[in-house]
Amino acid sequence: MTAGTVFVKPSSTLDLVVRGRAQRASRRRLVMGILAASIVVVFAVSLMVGQTLYSPADVMGVLLGRDVSGATFTIGRLRLPRAVLAVVAGLSFGLAGVTFQTMLRNALASPDIIGISAGASAAASFAIVTLSLSGAAVSIFAIVAGLGVALAIYALSYKGGAAGTRLILVGIGIAAMLESVTNYILSRAGQWELQEALRWLTGSLNGTTWPQVLTALIALVVFGPMLLSRAGLLGAMQLGDDTAGALGVRVERTRIIVIFSAVGLIAFATAAAGPIAFVAFLSGPIASRLIGPNGSVLLPASLVGALLVLVADFCGQYAFGTRFPVGVVTGVLGAPYLIYLIVRTNRAGGSL
Amino acid sequence: MTSSHTLVAQALTLGYGDSTVINGLDLIVPGGQITAIVGPNACGKSTLLRSMSRLLAPRDGRVLLDGKSVHKIPARELARTLGLLPQSPIAPDGITVTDLVGRGRQPHQGLFSRWTREDEQAVADALDATDTASLADRSVDELSGGQRQRVWIAMALAQHTDLLLLDEPTTFLDVSHQIEVLDLLTDLNRSRGTTIVMVLHDLNLAARYADHLIALADGRVHAAGAPADVLTEECVRHVFGIESKVILDPTSDKPLMLPIGRHHMNVTV
């Protein structure tokens, strides 16, 4: 190596860099385009298909506010809010999950594994069953509990810097505790609230109403851009706190904003749809395998989350004869994947 | 082409928790030169670098870059002038060389900002300067230790800073890769005028490659200056607590330190 190489062939390397980036960007656009198109298709199908089949024209009519006999109620009041919440909750869980996984450099560090969803879920079920609250009050309970749990895990696992593995183990312990709290609250509730009870155990979109959708949507509009705009900072923080600091990232400040936003997303989505099992956990690793090393995985993971919830809810409703809540389906998908990931991480020490 | 920046520490006291690591230290980093910092394990070399690059707030005293306290310069602004390569940065799984090098552009980009021609050029230059263009699409996990260290240096270069601090850039490398990395840093200093400050373990390599050598002991500067003036038998005794023989390096005009050890006390050199 000589100093001369700096000047000998700058143009060819520049071409290489530019071409490489263009290739990666086009691969990325392709994958995201396919994901977005799939979401639109499944969304449309879930509006049309059900116990009564409606034509695309009927669906369009309802969406445009025309009065179509029968369809206006079934689509406008039942299917549409349900499908919209599926997308909103999926986007929120996917984005928040991958944010935690990226920041803590470990796929197991997603909010549904380390107890943040469990905290929001326990608080929401407490607010609904024990205090008979509803609407925004439930969301407030969920977000306060989610943040509280996040802080508690951070504090309990902090020992001269937050260590990944310790944080995850503490989180799993806290999750187990909080799930038993939810179980206890639900066992005190009347048997007739079974549908509602299932929502807080595994997550469900049954009986979704517009106000629920709206709170979750507002949270997504507020917190989503806060996270997506920090994709670059998160990318720098993946290199270690000192490296990120040397790159001009204010690490502690970024971490606080990111944790707060991600917990906000999780808590509001959980308050609306329950802790839909494993979506936060699955979306990031699936997206990172689809996208490959082609840029930030935040937005792709969010799309994967939306697609997962839409498909799982559709299957849960119509594929098995009996109607299952969406969380049962995602749980069946997620558990084997969790085991696979633990086995793989154990061998290779992988992070996402 | 020489960097006109001055980096100075004044009465600097640093520590973690109850322990004080650096105690009332003064030092000057000469602009446009290569400075090497040596000293025994746990004498605060890394702590000093972290504080000089704003990562650790001083207990007392200050670090001045061009007369301004680095802890008062906004992080992003400082990161365009002064870069730091920590001792063990983490490469995310599966990241490619170009992607990793591109992350050095962080301080030049805003939230949501687009990738510009200038960014592409900086990455290409950094790959060329470190001779890693042929590795551009490879995954960092697959590289050898020496290649990986060149890639990290490329990331620091893409940051386009006039000052570059490196914490033990040659640790865990075999001798050929150590020389490769130090030659590369010298190239950068000579061709771009980048001021280089590095913590090194190997006294002889430090003396060989540095224009300015700083020996730390007990949280203070024991000696600083040209290697020939700093690397003396007295200095090695004081800083490392061992007897040694310092001779003239036959391949350069720099001092060469030969440690003696208990079993060779009576051998004359």
Keywords:
heterodimer, A: 352 residues, mainly alpha, ABC transporter involved in vitamin B12 uptake, BtuC, disordered N terminus, B: 269 residues, alpha/beta, Rossmann fold, six-stranded mixed β-sheet, 9 helices, 12 strands, transmembrane transporter activity (chain A), membrane (chain A)
Describe this structure in words.
The complex is a heterodimer of chains A (352) and B (269). Chain A is built from 15 helices and no strands. Chain A is an all-alpha fold. Chain B is an alpha/beta fold. Chain B folds into two domains: 1-81 and 162-232, 3-Layer(aba) Sandwich (Rossmann fold), CATH 3.40.50.300; 90-160, no CATH class. Helices cover 30% and strands 26% of the residues of chain B. Chain B contains nine helices and twelve strands. At the A-B interface, α1, α2, α10 and α11 of A face α2, β6, α3, α4 and α6 of B.
Task: Compose a concise summary of this entry.
Chain B: Keywords: ATP-binding, Cell membrane, Ion transport, Iron, Iron transport, Membrane, Nucleotide-binding, Transport. Chain A has helices at 5-8, 10-48, 56-63, 71-103, 116-130, 136-157, 164-188, 194-202, 210-228, 231-237, 241-246, 251-273, 279-291, 298-318, 326-348. Chain A is mainly α and 352 residues long.
